[in-house]
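Subject: complex prediction, re-run

Hi both,

The earlier run crashed halfway through, so I resubmitted it with identical inputs.
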Amino acid sequence: MTILKRGLSRRRVLQTGMAGIIGSGVAPLVFTKGAWAQEFCNNPTGDTVVFGLNLPLTGTYAEEGADEQKAYELAIAHLNGEGDGGLLNVLQPSALKGNGILGKKVTYVSSDSQTKSDVARAGATRMIERDGAIMITGGSSSGEAIAVQGLCQEMGVIFMAGLTHSNDTTGKDKRRYGFRHFFNAYQSGIGLAPVLGDAYGKDRRAYHLTADYTWGWTQEESIKNATEGLGWETVAAVRTPLGATDYSQYLTPILNSGADVLILNHYGLDMVNSLTQAVQFGMRDRQANGKDFQIVTPLISELMAKGAGESVKGIFGTSNWHWNLQDPGSIAFTKSFGAKYGSPPSQAAHTAYVQALLYADAVERAGTFYPPEVIKALEGFEFDGMGNGPTVYRADDHQCIKSVLVVQGNESPTSEFDVLNVFQEIDRDTVAYDPAIFGGELGEAEPVPMCA
Amino acid sequence: MFEVIFLQFLNGLDKGAAYALIALGLTLVFGTLGVVNFAHGALFMLGAFCAVTVRMFLTMETVTVDPEKLSPWGSPLEIREPLVQAWFGDFGAVLVNYSVPLSIIITIPIMLVVGIALERGIIKHFYKRSHAEQILVTFGLAIVAQEVIKSVYGPNPIPQPMPTDLRGAADIGAFLGMQANIITYPIWRLVYFVFAAVVIGGVFAFLQFTTFGMVVRAGMADRETVGLLGINIDRRFTIMFGLAAVVAGMAGVMYTPLLPPNYHLGMDFLVLSFVVVVVGGMGSLPGAVAAGFLLGILQSSASMNQVKAVFPGIDQIIIYLVAVIILLVRPRGLFGRRGVMEA
Amino acid sequence: MPKFMSRNDLLLFAGFSLVVLAMPIWLAPFGAGYPDLLQRFMIFGIFAVGFNILFGLTGYLSFGHAAFFGVGSYAAVWSFKLLTLDAIPAMIFAVVISGLFALVIGFLCLRRSGIYFSILTLAFAQMSYNLAYSVLTPITNGETGLQLTLNDPRVLDAAVGQGFVGQPVPNLLGQQLSGYAGFYFCASFLILGFFIAQRIAGSPFGMMLKAIKSNQTRMQFTGFNTRPYALSAFVISGMYAGLAGALLAVTDPLAGAERMQWTASGEVVLMTILGGVGTLVGPVIGAWIIKYFENILSALNDNILARFWSFLPEGVADVLVKVTSKFVGDGWHLTLGLAFVIVVIFLPGGIMEGVRRVAALFRRSGSSGAKTAPQTQPAE
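This time it finished cleanly. Structure:
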């Protein structure tokens, strides 16, 4: 935020001065050998602590990013004891006091990741090195989340993932310093398949269109496995580039392919475009194999449903959370968010808000910002009241295990935000799975890597 | 198999119509003024945002806040009253419904002014400078235009619904006497194709059958001689730049229901349209149109699953591949005149 | 050549090296004295110096140089994954691969000139980008980007029995290359790259390239085959781009397809033009300015602006905050675009020409009989 925020600390002057004198050859020797063993990256010494918000404010997931930003601002206000306190009042158990974190006021810096992994990583580096961010959070694509998570592991900074739904984030590419509250594609498959079986029968032929990156791949795989378990057949799975806009060339082959279900493994604008175009192609009025042609959107949020308008009516998908839930946590958050911004929060906003609070709470419980201690406080943490029922931060893969919602496009919305109905809540025991199935290694928390 | 190919052919025509329209304007500018205009995509984008603006005005609402009642998410309830419907009743509703085609009426004068201002203000000074400098200045202008749009309209696309009567798909198969429900295609895409054909035909007729067009064509062929005949060719060329901007703008307006416009729409189309122009032959109007359709159809057929099974990834690169081959084998493009920027 | 280097060249080189090495000190007051940005200054400086060898000397405007940058990154990351975490083999590997890549593409593209050359390079770069993004996913890991993992083979490291804990990061003979160490590593390459560019510009080879720019046809009529010269320039410039890409992967071991997109190629064009095409220092300055503003201007927000304008009456300040906020933060590209258009229209020689004009102005007012300002080369 501020250009000269950190000023010239003694260490920095020493570093730069010496570096300048010594020149290129010898300098590296001085800085890397644990000269500041007691320190860790961006140890907050003043009376404030900085969160680094890495948000897609432009690009395919820009709307989710904007909603996340609102949620983070709200969360930071609540952590500092401003506003109505939101979920601080309902988190069980809670060590939060509403006076910042460990008495330090929370501030933030943000960076536009443009829904691109490369840019996200550069932004995170900047926020850690220039702005002294103690924790990086946000991200609205799994590509971004995995790229930034790897960086955070190198830098020794905790990453609280925002909206990322790929199995890889806490599977193959999991990291000790990365944590995810959002659910994943595998859980979507477990939750969605029985509902699809009941609604559309056991004898269906599915055609997948898949966003061509880590999230799309894992969702395609998970949904394919889940639906084939029902007895469905997969006709074809076609990859589309992330951020594609015209889907006509991908949609026409479906019409006479013998498929009677279209599964859209898209998100954000991709989904808005592919879904509306599929409807323009008359897919929802078609008959195939003597049945009504159906469209399924395994991961959907109210922002996208709003964007797709009419097209989304009656369509099944899954969500991490929905503002219409009636538990005290959801009601408190929706009220707090709605009063400030005039619209209900999306699932992206919810997971962002909760992640900020969970990090703050873990620091309070650990009594220090020292990342390995905070990691220990988060691992295996059992909590409740955040709108998803009883939840556990699983120690083996840093994945939150909680209930999952199956949602359906609202046939008769009462407002522009009332576009999804919660069809079924799948409890957490059903969607829990063995973390070993995805492989990957968390890596070590110590020795703490030292950022520059 | 026939229906798959036929549908992809329709897709190709549809894409090709968009490419041809943009390439046509680009070629008009290059053919008349000899300027390589990297800002042409931005003109397409500006046209699209004319449609957005018209709809914004047509859907203005009065918002009354009822502080007594609360919405389900806890903010005061807002009651919205659409203004145009309140003033004009059913006619207002029709206006809103047909906002996209209606915007064309407003887009034409706006784009004409934008085009002429651009030519007189900046492009004019670059006639004598190298093509590289022309590329650079228009590339800069394109960045400025897209950033201005971004700061006014925000980074997110703004969906423009098509008129309700033109939604959904038409059963072309049944129309042609085949089995029903096999070959269906979205009505608006067919409308776009027809629209493109009309515009392209109009531009050609204008150049072919009017005195103005004749002079311009003569000027394209030999600017100096026409000037010596005492004809003010510069004024006409300025108007041609305006015309090119109008064609790009209209293409943008009609494209909005297919693709919600956002600020980098122009850049997305820019590279493609240049490839189209080069394939058709720099400066050749029929070439631009033919190459537009050709590349559209090639791209669609390359994305058929059967083709991709043989050449994985071909759908991603086919257009560039064709461009590279044509440039290497026949540098003046399909229809290019001999000697235009050849080397 | 009678002497190894003229006195002026030597002074320029020494001055340049000093400015670069002292960057952490003199940039700190401008809020840019942190390693990540400094590394980027070096990396994009190398990229721009290399681009200028092609565009500045021969006049061939390539819109596809980002492809070589990306290939360099991918090659470096693969070297980290397969061979060793040491940076040196990765750099060599990256430069060789991107050089070969440039040789093939350059051989084809240089059959044409002018706009056709630009479109050809653009088409090749877009093909590379689209393939990296889709079917080449096994090599590039698509959108997610290629990253290092704990269970990469790293045969050379394994052969010497080197193990480690935590996240694998590139190093130089065992020294980590993050932070300021990374900066000095990159800086030494920028200085080396600058030196080579300086030598090229002054050599007979460089003269030949400039002759291609000023009149290729005449060269051909005199019986010269210009293509081998242009191709050498293309390959050298591609190798610079590959080197820059490799350095980016060294300082941050992730290679993403975005860095190959044509807009990334456009960025290096902007850098070169803004700084001053055809000059040695200009492109580097252009790169620094763009990267500086990308990082600093884009971080300004309304609060900071409000503080900046707070000395004015409230109403005026509010208006100014509103207006200026369009040009900073998310809108900094607008500033960039405007600056670029102004430079192309009024100052075709870029910032370097501006500096020269100002300098000439001073000289003239100082001693009235001084020589006229040096003629600047227009772009292309």
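The longest helix of chain A spans residues 347-366.

- K.
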